[in-house]
Amino acid sequence: MNSLKKLAFNKWLLLLLFTFLLSNVNAQAVAQNAVVSLTPNILASPLFWVFAFAILGLLLVIIAIGGVLVGLVNNKIAKQFKNTLPIIFFFFILGIGSSQAQTVSSTVAPNPITQIAGALDPTTIMILMLVVAIELFVILYLFAILQKMLIALGYKTKAESKWTYAAIMKRMTKAIPLDREAEVATDHNYDGIIELDNSLPPWWVYMFYGTIIFAITYMIYFNFFDGPTQKMEYDTEVAQALVNKNEFLKKAAASVDETSVVSLTDAAALAKGKSSFITKCATCHGQHGEGLVGPNLTDAYWIHGGGIKDIFKTIKYGWPEKGMISWESQIMPMEMQQIASYIITLKGTNPANPKAPQGTIYVEAATVDTTAKAVAIDSLKVL
Amino acid sequence: MQQEQFYYDNKIVRNFAYASIIFGLIGMTVGLLIALQLVFPNLNFGIPYTTFGRVRPLHTNAVIFAFVGNGLFAGIYYSLQRLCKARMYSDVLSKINFWGWQIIILAAAITLPLGYTSGKEYAELEWPIDIAIALIWVVFGWNMFATILKRRERHLYVAIWFYIATFITVAVLHIVNSFEIPVSLFKSYSWYAGVQDALVQWWYGHNAVAFFLTTPYLGLMYYFLPKAANRPVYSYRLSIIHFWALIFLYIWAGPHHLLYTSLPDWAQSLGVVFSVMLIAPSWGGMINGLLTLRGAWDKVREDVVLKFFVVAITAYGMSTFEGPMLSLKNVNAIAHFTDWIIAHVHIGALGWNGFLTFGMLYWLFPRIYGKELFSKKLANFHFWIGTLGILFYAIPLYWAGITQSLMWKEFTAEGYLKYPNFLETVTQIIPMYALRSLGGLLYLIGVIVMTYNLVKTALSGKLIANELAEAPALTKVYGVAKNEHWHRWIERRPVQFMVFSLVVILIGGAAEIIPTFLIKNNIPTIASVKPYTPLELQGRDIYIREGCNTCHSQMIRPFRSETERYGEYSKAGEFVYDHPFLWGSKRTGPDLQREGGKYPDAWHYNHMLEPSSMSPGSIMPVYAWLLDDNLDTSSTAAKIRAMQTVGVPYPLGYDLIANKDLMHQADSIKNTLAQSGIKTASDKEIVALIAYLQRLGRDIKLETKLN
Asked: What residues of A are in contact with residue B298 (Cβ under 8 Å)?
């Protein structure tokens, strides 16, 4: 293959590799956003705003240099730069994309939290730093192209510039050109395999140092200073959730509980109750409430009372020792009310394959003692 | 200097290569089966031996230890002889290594479906097989080391450094993790309990990835890549730095499998930071590989072997970047227990190990058979369908993992879980499971095509069983060059090399494991936590036998989304009697740590008989045999004694009366079942399993009641 073709091939490969890297970083950012939305604290942090402004500022610089470049290409010259256009375009898109990501993450972030206000967790910091680093890299790259153009246009001579792409790459990789390979060759030869002794790529060395510094900082912060333990993180999360929940409930219509619940009769509510019943209750009580593992809900007999308040309470707290689980953490009060109301309507529907009655006949309006009046189950009647 | 003539042993290379191919086909087919079982649960055919929980370990063992294991032996046996300019030390040892390894694989293939398992991931095989593995591994090391000692090459090439580190570290890992107390010929309990067992297990598990799937393959890369590209290795000093840094840092990273668990915070932090520091040493291998191709990229477009290598090395770079990212606690909070991890692992397995093996085989066969490859077209087809397979495998699982995790964590404004029913989050991602199976199928088709291609190549040629070579013998005295690199010293001294690498890999493990064992406050005790009753113990062993822990975790992390769903988060002190620990690493089904008392006995009975009767749409397989099979109570006494040996405080002589307690508890469960209209005998396995499930997480509930 001739060298020109090779060059083109390499360029595309580079672009591909770079796109891959960025998409990887993007995926990380998405994951990070998700975390941010779960740990609501970053807006309170001054550090976050410093980063946000830095990121935005750098973005403007990118757009500015990009604009100059596009201007140069369009106005004057040099067909030789035509093929850098897609690359510039690519960075434009990237710039726009990340600015959008910025707005998204700011809108997602909810209520500031008091306990660890002002603190950013190390990973957030790292991700933000990564974004800044990428932007700096992009600026460097665009700047290098600009330099190259200026040289090509005769505004500058080659010798002056340390900031051409090639010069930067050379400094970061310290790679020796292929034709000077002999200079770094060792005398090692294993079954025909020869070893060169190229320098460690500086970018790789810096990355290694960077991770070591991260490691030391992390260990010190979390194990000797006030980095939160996972128990502290948990307590904070739960406390904040409680605050949020109470605030919401204050705003929302008063929530029902077992003392205030009343039977609903409108068709819409009962229909909702029915569909909830089928997805959540039918596995044990049967599709029509005829009873399976759980008791028959259509007859007159009730183990824990058949009034709306009793049923609501049974759903909410359960009777774990008898096998009825508590649904408190899974079903909203409103939905429990709908289900309980639907169950009331089942009375006397006489479905097929009814389970034999359990408990006592429930009489409406009687003051029912719901506190586990242990009723013997007639084991002969079962099955 | 006088040349000595000798012969390389190619027959052993061929044998290992064929074994790798055959077990690759089997292991991947089993993988495809279990992938499909997640979409069509009926594909377990209603019998125990093909059910997910038993077959999944079969898949992992087959691809890791049989496919990759035989692959690395093939590569090492080929390259070591040439790098040492010597035939293997002993043909007998080579044969013992080969046949011993195949017998171990056969034993695994029989015992795992039968349910004989230690319950520890990637170390499932029971104690007699563990001993066999140790012996065969030592035979391999002996053979390798003796070959190195009689070498005709003064210095050890970087590939051999990796082989030595592989041998010594896998030996240490395997032996330490396999400490177990036998109960019978096919049953043992882990010596360690709970948190300690978890730490040792993932120190092992993580480094099985490091020293069985990574370091030997880096060694193979250092031999086969420059050979195939006919280019010099990029940087000798990079080799030195990244080799020592890699083996030193890798051993510390195990705790990143246990982030946000009951493992002490300090150990978790170590797992995080050492994983992050691993990026550079891992990428050192990648860039030394990719930069070796400098000036040969035009060849990559034509040569299918190099294509495989480039994708393999790139996949290595991707997964070793992703790994440290997954080790960050807030990323891990999302990814752990989901299919994201399965995707991550398969980038490494399918991309790095698979493609490097394929590239190596395509390079090897023409050389040991003295014939050109049968069809380059087919090899290219394999490359493209394999690459496509990896994409179709990984992308849907990334999608599935993130989707499911976000569903697990989503709350409504009222403060309720948005998806309180775990099953909803499963049915959501089943289409992704289906796509993943397609990816696996494509990949498998590629391997079938390769097999045909290689067999055709072999049939058209004739094995050069003994390949003539010549080299001068080493002289006794060696004049050290004046400006020699300092590292050359140890490259001439294999024994010192091995000892030094042993020291380097012991540091990390010791620093993490020893304090966890010795410092009491690492595992605060909880007064209400009591040993399992005999029936619960038997039930727990059924849980282990059926591999329930492959899909169900028993580790509630301290997140609101988990405590809301499952109950109080797990405490280290709850697991002190768990030999082995059963925290699990994947939630295909919900966590079971606080399952006790959540549902009635009858629910569990019906659920095992037909899971979808209790949870419509469930993809859990049917466990009907538990309802019919009788519980073997003859083992109870031995089990109690074994538990006493590892420190579980049953009263003296309890082994003799344990079965009385067992029957008593079983009868009471039989009675509660009868009240729900279920007639069963009290000596069925289901009764023991129910007893165990109903015990789970109860101790700490008792504690909160007492307070």
From this structure: 1, 6, 9
Distance CA B453, CA B371 (A): 12
Could you tell me which residues come within 8 angstroms of residue B65 by beta carbon, excluding any fewer than 6 positions away?
B104, B105, B108, B212
Closest Cα partner for B263 from B516, B527, B514? B516
Residues in chain B, total = 707
One-letter amino acid at B409 equals K
Q: What is the mean pLDDT of chain A?
A: 75
Contact criterion met (CB below 8 Å) for B649 and A318: no
Closest chain A residue to B280, measured at CA: A208
For chains A and B, what is the number of CB pairs under 8 angstroms?
207
3-state helix, strand, coil in chain B (%, to 5): 70, 5, 25
Mean pLDDT of chain B: 94
Chain A residues whose CB is inside 8 A of the B281 CB are 208
How far apart are the C-alpha atoms of A229 and A219, rounded to whole Å?
12
Q: What is the pLDDT of residues B149-170, one digit of tens each?
A: 999 999 999 999 999 999 999 9
Residues near A329 by Cβ (< 8 Å), separated by ≥ 6?
Answer: B416, B417, B420, B564, B565
CB burial of B268-295 (b: ≥16 within 10 Å; e: otherwise) equals: bbbbbbbbbbbbbbbbbbbbbbbbbbbb
For chain B, the C-alpha Rg in angstroms (whole number) is: 26
A193/B223 CB distance under 8 A: yes
Q: Determine contact, residues A106/A182, Cβ cutoff 8 Å.
A: no
Please name the residue of chain B whose CA is at the shortest distance from the CA of residue A32: B331
Give the number of other Cβ atoms within 10 Å of residue B690's Cβ. Answer: 30
What is the ipTM for the molecules in this complex?
Answer: 0.92
Q: What is the pLDDT of residues B95-146, one digit of tens each?
A: 999 999 999 999 999 999 999 999 999 999 999 999 999 999 999 999 999 9
Determine the length of chain A. Answer: 383
Longest CA span, chain A: 104
Residues 6+ apart with CB under 8 A from A177: none
Q: In this model, does residue A15 exceed pLDDT 70?
A: no
Half-sphere exposure of B148 (CA within 13 A, CB side): 23
Supply the DSSP string of B594-639, one letter for each residue: T-TTTS-HHHHHHHHH-HHHHSTT--PPP-THHHHSBP-GGGHHHH
CA angle B698, B192, B692 (to 5 degrees): 30
Q: Which chain A residues are Cβ-neighbours of B277 within 8 angstroms?
A: 208, 211-212, 214-215
Amino acid of residue A364: E
Classify residue B52 as exposed, middle or buried by CB count within 10 Å of its CB (0-12, 13-18, 19+). Answer: buried
Q: Are B264 and B516 in contact (CB under 8 A)?
A: yes
For the record, the structure tokens of A74 come out as 């369009």
CA distances from A25 to A16, B411, B527, B533 (A): 14, 27, 47, 51
CB nearest A231 (choices: B269, B402, B558)? B558
Single-letter amino acid, residue B40: F
3-state secondary structure of B580: coil
Angle at A101 between CA A100 and CA A107, to 5 degrees: 90
* A199-224 confidence digits (pLDDT tens): 999 999 999 999 999 999 999 988 88
Tell me if the bond preceding B580 is cis, omega within 30° of 0.
yes
pLDDT score for A166: 75
How many of the other CB atoms lie within 10 Å of CB of B410?
A: 15
Residue range A244-265: average pLDDT? 77
CA distances (Å), B443 to each of B302, B304, B381, in order?
A: 22, 16, 11
Kindly state the DSSP code that residue B648 receives in the 8-state scheme: -
What does DSSP say about strands B3-9 and A360-361: parallel, antiparallel, or unpaired? unpaired
